[in-house]
Write a structure and sequence with these properties.
mainly alpha, 2 domains, 3 helices, 75% helix
Length: 108
């Protein structure tokens, strides 16, 4: 093998390495974008739920909502209700939106 053949192989290997790094970078960017889209969708959905079912909460600031929800989740009754809803979801394989709301009997 001559020096020129080695140089050619080295150049080809460097080019493959460069393409692989580029593909890796693109894959990482795509994964970050997908995660960001999923998070944005979740935020949009949760915001829609609050506006639709709890319109009186739209007047609260984010800090106030965090305080309210923090207190609610510390309440044993709320904790038991959440556990029961999660258990039902696992048992039936359905989302809680398929069931009637327990607090007032209306469809969720």
């Amino acid at each position: 093998m001559t020096i020129e053949e080695k140089d050619e192989k080295v150049l080809q290997a460097e080019e493959r390495l460069k393409r692989a790094k580029s593909e890796l970078h693109k894959a990482k960017l795509d994964a970050k974008a997908k995660a960001r889209r999923e998070l944005d969708h979740l935020k949009f959905t949760m915001g829609g739920i609050v506006v639709k079912y709890f319109p009186e909460c739209s007047g609260f600031s984010e800090l106030e909502m965090c305080r309210i929800l923090g207190c609610a989740f510390k309440n044993p009754d709320v904790g038991n209700l959440i556990k029961r809803i999660v258990a039902e979801r696992k048992y039936t394989g359905t989302q809680s939106s398929d069931h009637k709301r327990e607090d007032d009997g209306t469809e969720a």
